[in-house]
């Protein structure tokens, strides 16, 4: 027989599980997006929730085995093709470096768009396959998940949540509708720059015109992706009165990988929860060897450089230029670089295959971070208060770095024109103009000064949705209105018509009266 | 000599004070607004901050002596005249009860507007007097306050913060520009009802037309108050390029006495902090006598009724009707009533001069709260999960109760038409239709399920502003734009003009070509 205390303990554990232990179905996005999602999943697991991840079998980053989650692997080609992607990145870099013509660059952009378009098609094929697999669908129904957690850069999670009738939580920055805010919150184009425009929240007239034109292109691009794919899919499966945009906008909570140390201040919605920096954590001690190297920098400090996991090799001429520039500085340099060892490399520069980025950024000797401008890296730089020299390569990187530049904490270079001289100049500017470091320290102190840690806040709201089966009180249903209704165009037209009518009646009456009078006088005269 | 440990303690205390102990200058609003502000002040005091309250010498509610704050008393008539106000309330009640004509009611509304208008004039006179008192202004400068905390229903705090160059925090729901959100966040009139319109966030076409008309009246009213008063004042003291609206919108943090258990979901801004329910606290045990009375209700439970502090006496006929209705119910009733004892009073009804509202609402036997719909009372009812029968009298009360009605947790009656029958019917509906209680319990559970207590959240952000000398990163500067710029009217007009020009050129060229061709043919033919 069981000891009564043990029974009590078991009951306690069970009740805790009943309260805390939810079941979560996750539709992640492959690549660097997965790194973020995985942190959230690990935290959910540590809080006693059971997480199931849906992954295509050709996925690049998403492992099938993990202590934190179970997986459902779908036969699909919706993953990211690592080799093709790597080749594309290198090709882009080389072409930009060679000063490719406007036409070549435009066709590269078009290639990238087509690449993403194809991924949307494949994702929808994957979902279609799942919908048609009655055994799978039955098992998903039977599993009684509490919610779907998804990165809505692709629509799989949104569609499945609707099919299963489950609450929906987003881990979001980019969506099919562009940057997350633009899909849900009012975004006056007069002071909210379209991401990618490299405009700020203070624009001249010409910049505001540009911003509006960018908005039209964005709208066109959304239409280009949704119209031939999501629209017929949704009509086929949910009926012709259902629109993807509606399903998407009805998400309960938007956990935004963003905040206002990063973004310009702007309107938001009650169900947007900012969790920028949720991946940041204090640094750990370096290895003995690295620590010795860092300490040997003395008062000059250390420069840390990495261009992310996508770019492992740099074109040779750039690498030579960078190495030569580093060699002229009194600082020590730690550089993640996988190509040929540059001939110009100085004694002060250590080349590594991989570097402990967070631990180096958190080291008191670190003075500058040379980075490509991925969101994770920038947020770690903010967290540790290290100013940036930016070398954006693609995607949102230029835009991210531009924001840091506007806040006075980054100097941004163009990979197409960077050389030893301007690289050295940028490094010296960020090293020796105190404003970069001071402003970054201030930004860091603001980012860290929050009532709650970003990851805890994210957890609270995921669990809130489980406790209350949604967050309807925070979510407008304005997405159910047409654009004409939403912007009160019909009401304005009606009121203008009424005013016009009243005015016309008034003028007619006046003319009629005038005519009567005039006519009477005329008659009298006659 | 001092013991070393004591010195260490003193140093510790001093450093704590340096970190925590800020200096705050408060410009409150008199009446029920002060009750809220005083709770915040007491909490600030308990956290080691030094609070100074500016009060006119004829104030009604704001005491000159308090353990929580110091005062600066200004010779002014900007307070609320208790007697005049009480008389006005009684007059209004009686007139509405007698079925006053539309004209009388309109003139009463006009009287109320004039009353508030006069208060604005007096507040500005008070601030003018302060500005001109060089000794006072010097002492305010020398005191080195960290921020101004104000209720911006009147503009004194806004103007003083600008004069002293201090960060500004609002404790706000109503402003000169109407409900707080309308003054700072985008408010699409298609789904955001104008407060007072008794519309919801789901409107028919006609309701949307109404809503837009209400918006025009509101705009007119704002103009009526600011144009002849605030505008010349600001121009006189700060220069002709400064506008009151700008000073007002530049507040760092808006502590909003509101949240989405109360308000319809809507766009908001990053520097809006919701603190609805900050005044709510668990109930304390009742007095022995009251507890016995409550317990004697058995399974039927208790009805609690109070119409707030403004209405101490009810017209005799209403009181008789209420008492008669109560007498027919099996519940026990606790009624705050100061007039003549109604002849119809039943044995089940206890009349009190004052009642411990929070302790009664938190009592498990309480079934219904009959209330006038002041924000404090409603928020306490939500906190304790007690459904409402509402009898709105004036100001925002009808609107507050309407929101509760839309959420299915209140039945609202009109004081003009209430009688024994419909009062009894309303009570029975809320008592015996389970949905009222269930929905209120749900609302209560949502209000209580927050990552942080509302009052703690308010404190965090006040202290954040002190630590960082503002909250610039959360605040847009869109208020610096003109309406034409903000709404991109100039950009739209420009783009339309360009399109028109291009179209005209195209058509002209086409006609020119056609003409040439036609003319050549004609010439050839000839």
From TrEMBL, chains A, B:
EC top class named in words: transferase
PROSITE patterns per UniProt: UDPGT
Topological relation to the membrane, as annotated: Single-pass membrane protein
E.C. numbers: 2.4.1.17
Keywords: Glycosyltransferase, Membrane, Signal, Transferase, Transmembrane, Transmembrane helix
Gene3D superfamilies the UniProt entry points to: Glycogen Phosphorylase B (3.40.50.2000)
Residues that span the membrane, as ranges: 491-514
GO molecular function: glucuronosyltransferase activity
InterPro entries: UDP-glycosyltransferase (IPR050271), UDP_glucos_trans (IPR002213), UDP_glycos_trans_CS (IPR035595)
Signal sequence bounds: 1-21
An annotated GO cellular component: membrane
Catalysed conversion reaction: glucuronate acceptor + UDP-alpha-D-glucuronate = acceptor beta-D-glucuronoside + UDP + H(+)
Intracellular or extracellular location(s): Membrane
Superkingdom, taxonomy of origin: Eukaryota
Predominant subcellular localization, coarse grouping: membrane
Family stated for the protein in its record: Belongs to the UDP-glycosyltransferase family.
Name listed for the protein in its UniProt record: UDP-glucuronosyltransferase
């Amino acid at each position: 027989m069981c000891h009564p205390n043990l029974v009590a303990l078991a009951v306690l554990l069970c009740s805790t599980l009943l309260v805390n232990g939810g079941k979560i179905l996750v539709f992640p996005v492959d690549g660097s997006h997965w790194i973020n999602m995985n942190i959230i999943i690990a935290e959910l697991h540590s809080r006693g929730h059971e997480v199931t991840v849906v992954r295509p079998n050709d996925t690049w980053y998403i492992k099938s085995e993990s202590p934190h989650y179970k997986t459902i692997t779908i036969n699909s080609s919706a993953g990211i093709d690592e080799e093709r992607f790597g080749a594309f990145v290198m090709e882009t870099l080389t072409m930009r470096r060679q000063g490719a013509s406007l036409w070549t660059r435009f066709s590269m952009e078009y290639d990238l768009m087509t690449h993403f378009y194809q991924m949307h098609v494949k994702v929808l094929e994957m979902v279609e396959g799942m919908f048609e697999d009655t055994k799978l669908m039955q098992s998903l129904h039977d599993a009684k998940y509490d919610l779907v957690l998804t990165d809505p850069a692709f629509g799989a999670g949104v569609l499945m949540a609707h099919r299963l009738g489950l609450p929906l939580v987003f881990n979001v920055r980019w969506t099919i509708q562009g940057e997350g805010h633009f899909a849900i919150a009012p975004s006056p184009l007069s002071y909210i720059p379209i991401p990618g425009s490299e405009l700020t929240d203070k624009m001249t007239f010409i910049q505001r015109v540009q911003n509006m034109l960018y908005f039209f292109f964005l709208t066109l691009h959304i239409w280009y992706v949704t119209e031939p794919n999501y629209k017929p899919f949704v009509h086929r499966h949910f009926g012709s009165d259902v629109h993807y945009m509606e399903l998407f906008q009805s998400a309960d909570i938007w956990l935004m990988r963003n905040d206002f140390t990063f973004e310009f201040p702007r309107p938001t919605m009650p169900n947007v929860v900012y969790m920028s920096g949720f991946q940041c954590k204090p640094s750990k001690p370096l290895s003995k060897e690295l620590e010795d190297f860092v300490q040997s920098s003395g008062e000059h400090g250390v420069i840390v450089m990495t261009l992310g996991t996508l770019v492992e090799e740099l074109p040779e001429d750039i690498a030579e230029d960078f190495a030569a520039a580093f060699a002229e500085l009194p600082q020590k340099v730690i550089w993640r670089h996988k190509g040929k060892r540059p001939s110009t490399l100085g004694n002060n520069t250590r080349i590594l295959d991989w570097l402990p980025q967070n631990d180096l950024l958190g080291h008191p000797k670190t003075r500058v971070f040379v980075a490509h401008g991925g969101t994770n890296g920038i947020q770690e730089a903010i967290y540790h208060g290290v100013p940036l020299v930016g070398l954006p390569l693609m995607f949102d990187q230029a835009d991210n770095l531009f924001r840091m530049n506007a806040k006075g904490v980054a100097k941004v270079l163009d990979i197409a024109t960077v050389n030893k001289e301007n690289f050295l100049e940028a490094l010296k500017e960020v090293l020796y103009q105190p404003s970069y470091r001071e402003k970054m320290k201030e930004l860091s102190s603001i980012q860290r000064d929050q009532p709650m840690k970003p990851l805890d806040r994210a957890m609270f709201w995921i669990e809130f949705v489980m406790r209350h089966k949604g967050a309807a009180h925070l979510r407008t249903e304005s997405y159910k209105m047409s654009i004409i209704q939403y912007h009160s165009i019909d009401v304005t037209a009606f009121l203008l018509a009424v005013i016009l009518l009243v005015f016309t009646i008034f003028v007619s009456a006046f003319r009629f009266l005038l005519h009567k009078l005039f006519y009477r006088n005329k008659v009298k005269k006659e």
